[in-house]
Every structure is written in structure tokens, then in C-alpha cells.
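C-alpha cells incoming
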């Protein structure tokens, strides 16, 4: 025996078979939309690859020093105090795994009234390995450039102090983990190291506002000074 149920909608009659067929069509349509949405999402994700032509990077973080201090200088007086680091970098990718570029770093540490800061700029060579369809990478950078080091250290009475400034040939090493965020922006976790050939500075001098001179030669020898910068950066490019 075949039972037919009906529902009145105006002058139209819907059978149980019609309702079942409509439900199946709706389910098939929903399944099709889900599959299409998944394919679109996968395609969009695959396009969010890391830059492979050029990029600009801006970041900052914590600056740590490893220093053998000299008498009366910033580090012997204040120890290896942490500071902050700011950086900017530009890259041109010769291949997806090799880039040539330039990097600028600014480091500062202070224990008021004493303070120290470093400027570094130089060319870099970056090697990286890509995975996850070009959405992630680990990179290593090597550079050599100009480093300017300056510090001011006051005596205990805070009326007289030492000014030390010198330019050096610096070397930079960098290690980073890159991951895509959007099509043209990615994040970078960075660990950079800056070091230099530190030599005697014949221009180191005592400074104060009263032209005070204690008659002591303040040509210090800076050696075994290295800075480690740990931070995060944003990378823009394609």
C-alpha cells in the first residue's frame, strides 16, 4: 500500500516524494558549495607565498651585549645591560633562495645618565630554504659594513664624564624564520648578531661643560664586543 501525504499551499499539492527530492537537491547544492569554498580557500592560501622578487623589512626587539669592559667605560660601570634594537632591510631576490640587499640597525642601551648607542649599515647576502608551497622559510644572512659606536659615561658627581666615539668595520650575522600573513605581508622572527674589530681610539676624550681636564689619556681599547638582537619584523613585497 502506497501512502501519499499532501500539503496545501494555495492551489498546489506537494507529495512526500517531491519533498524528499527537494531535500536531496538542497543537500547536493550545499555539498557542492562546501567543496568550491574549500578549493577557493586552498587556492588563496597557495597564493600567499613569501616574497620572491623584492621585499622591505622593518622590525625591532631586544638588544643583548656580550662585552669585556674597560676601566671607566659604559659596560664596566653598568654591566651588560639590555637595550632595544631597531632595524630596516631591503632585499632583491636573484632566485627564490638567494637575495642581495642592505641592512640598517640601531641599538641603544642606557642606565641614566650613562648611555650607549650603535649605528650599523651594510650590504647583505641572504640564503633561505622554502617549504609549505613557499609560505614558510628559514633564512641565513651575512653582511659587512660600517659601524658607528658612541657612549657617554658620567662620573659619580655627574658633572664630568667621558665621551667615546669611533667608527669600525662591522660584521653581521642573521637567522630568521619567515611565515606568510597575507599575499604581500609576512612575519619574521629574527636573531641577529653584530660584532666588529675594536681597536684603540686615539680620539676618545673627556667632555664636560666647564672645560675640565684631568690629564688622563682616555684612549681606550674596545675588544670582544658583540651584540645579539632578538625580535620580530614585518616583511612587505612580492
Amino acid at each position: 500500500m502506497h501512502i501519499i501525504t499532501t500539503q496545501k499551499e494555495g492551489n498546489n499539492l506537494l507529495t512526500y516524494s517531491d519533498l524528499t527530492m527537494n531535500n536531496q537537491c538542497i543537500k547536493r547544492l550545499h555539498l557542492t558549495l562546501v567543496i568550491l569554498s574549500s578549493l577557493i580557500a586552498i587556492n588563496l592560501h597557495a597564493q600567499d607565498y613569501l616574497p620572491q622578487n623584492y621585499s622591505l623589512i622593518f622590525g625591532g626587539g631586544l638588544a643583548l651585549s656580550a662585552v669585556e669592559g674597560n676601566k671607566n667605560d659604559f659596560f664596566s660601570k653598568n654591566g651588560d645591560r639590555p637595550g632595544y634594537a631597531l632595524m630596516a632591510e631591503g632585499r632583491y631576490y636573484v632566485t627564490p633562495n638567494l637575495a642581495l640587499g642592505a641592512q640598517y640597525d640601531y641599538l641603544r642601551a642606557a642606565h641614566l645618565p650613562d648611555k650607549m648607542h650603535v649605528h650599523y649599515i651594510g650590504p647583505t647576502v641572504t640564503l633561505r630554504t622554502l617549504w609549505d608551497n613557499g609560505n614558510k622559510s628559514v633564512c641565513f644572512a651575512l653582511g659587512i659594513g660600517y659601524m658607528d659606536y658612541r657612549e657617554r659615561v658620567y662620573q659619580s658627581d655627574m658633572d664630568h664624564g667621558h665621551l667615546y666615539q669611533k667608527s669600525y668595520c662591522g660584521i653581521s650575522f642573521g637567522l630568521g624564520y619567515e611565515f606568510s600573513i597575507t599575499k604581500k605581508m609576512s612575519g619574521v622572527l629574527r636573531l641577529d648578531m653584530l660584532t666588529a674589530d675594536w681597536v684603540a681610539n686615539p680620539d676618545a676624550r673627556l667632555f664636560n661643560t666647564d672645560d675640565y681636564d684631568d690629564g688622563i689619556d682616555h684612549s681606550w681599547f674596545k675588544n670582544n664586543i658583540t651584540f645579539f638582537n632578538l625580535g620580530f619584523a614585518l616583511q612587505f613585497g612580492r
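note: The domain at 50-237 is CATH 2.40.160.20 (Porin).
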